[in-house]
Amino acid sequence: MVSPEYKVPSAICQVSGGKAVVTTDVGQNQMWAAQFFRYTRPRTFISSGGLGTMGFGLPACIGAQFGRRDELAVCITGDGGVQMNFQELVVAVEHRLPIVVVILNNGYLGMVRQWQELFYDRRYSGVTLTGNPDFARLAEAHGATGLRCAGRAELRETIERALATDGPVLVDVPHWAAEWTWLPAAERVLEAAAADAGVRVGSTVSRIVTDPWVARY
Predict the structure, then answer these.
(1) Rounded mean pLDDT of 163-189?
(2) Could you give the CA distance from residue 162 to residue 58 in angstroms, rounded to a whole number?
(3) pTM here?
(4) Domains and CATH numbers, the chain
């Protein structure tokens, strides 16, 4: 098991040098990818945003790779969302697209489970994915390379291997279901971004949103 889960997008960022087009599905994987992969260029984070489109990540990654043939395209997804469109992996295989699909696999619809735990007294309903396949073998059955990361100590090595492999690669990363992703209220987000950009602590929200650093985000 790899824990905490944010280590995964951080490791991808470190190994790739931050030079990747990242697509996501919806939920915890989306939040961690947004928060812990450090983006330095525009149009390199592709997500369905608040639309909540499960299954978006893999086909979006394929499209991004078609559009940017010379760049690395990575899909950070969950074990729920990836199964919505897993069959699209054959498109990447057919065209030998060197995409990397990383599945944060916790056996649940993680974000829905999180809300049920926090706000519905742990009355879980429809969030347990007990019938998950062996994703690495499923990728191989489609003609792609399938890898599995068994623990945090292997994470960087597994990502390095994935990025060095020709053709489409899928990496299955099992992790604990009990960890949450939490996005603070808007003012907290702006304050964090402002601090990262060097805007003085104590700036008001109105001051922050008009500072020049906003154009870089």
Answers:
(1) 74
(2) 16
(3) 0.80
(4) 7-174 (3.40.50.970), 186-216 (no CATH)
